[in-house]
Amino acid sequence: MELKLDNKKVYAVALEGGGAKGAYEVGAWKALEEAGVKYNAVSGTSVGALNGAMMVMRDMDRAVKCWMDIRLSKVIDVDPEEEEELRKMFRGEIELSDIHGLIPQVFDIIRNRGLDVAPLRAWLREAVDERRIKASDVEFFVSTVSITDRKALEIKINDLPEDEICDMLLASAYHPSFRLEKLGGKLYTDGGFVDTLPLHALVENGYKDIIAIRIPGHGVEKRFKMPEDVRVTVIDTNFDLGGVLYFDAEQSRRDMEIGYYDAKRVLYGLYGKRYYIDRSFSERQALELLLDRLYDEKEGDSLRRLCEKELPRIARRLGTEREGYYELLIALLEREAESLGLEPMRIISDAELVKELDAARP
Predict the structure, then answer these.
(1) What is the pLDDT of residue 100?
(2) What contacts 24+ positions apart, CB below 8 Å, involve 155-164?
């Protein structure tokens, strides 16, 4: 495979907020590292700020370990016996039989005005080395909102005193469901309310080549005029990464894997939306394969009708009407691969995928 991103350049990386889906960003970071992509600035919002701290420390092993060991009780103070019920709630899998048991917990949360995030504070203190951030060659920006000052903030973390760094990382990630407590004497809330994908801080500080790692979800993107000489490469996903408060080690491992392969798709120009396909077929070969898979002369099919009517109709249904025969072929192969349950988390050539599909057919 040929690397499509110019790894002679040095990039800035923007990390979107997304709560428990944050393992996705670590998987993407791993792919960037393997490809030799260099970076000298990171901006993050919410969980992107927490992952950004590890990127600034250049400590991927620590980031991977944090997400591999994650669970709800490491984020909020919850009784072990109640943790599974809350996990179900955050996963959206509440049964009628569970509701009665959850009522006391919900009342406790309301009475205490939010979830107690003392474990998250402790996790930050353990995971983040403030001295390494201060000494890093990577500039680090986070977005948050000061409720006290009624003001959106873009903070350069490297300039803060060491004893304020963890507080400002937590300020960026302060989800509205958390119990409101002062950080450094002020109240803050999640930076996703003003800038869930913090490109602005990087552009304002002169960075021209930016990699944006996106997490699907809710949030406000700061509106500003993007300079013509700024190039943003986006890594995003077509997969469900779970719920924003569904902190679960198994889900995080899956999200990390998805982030890794989604980044590979961008880095190496892989095709597919749910699979990661390395192209070897030409446009002509793709058309021949489409005809081979769809044309049945014994059934009296009209080749002209197939080319002029059926292929455009199929392309519209699959959302490839503005693309070529190759993209249409890939969409059809992906649909077939999904129906047969072929594993998507790997890189496979188009020729190998065709062979696997043919072998798997009943």
Answers:
(1) 41
(2) 157/53, 157/56, 157/133, 158/56, 158/133, 158/134, 162/130, 162/131, 162/134, 163/130
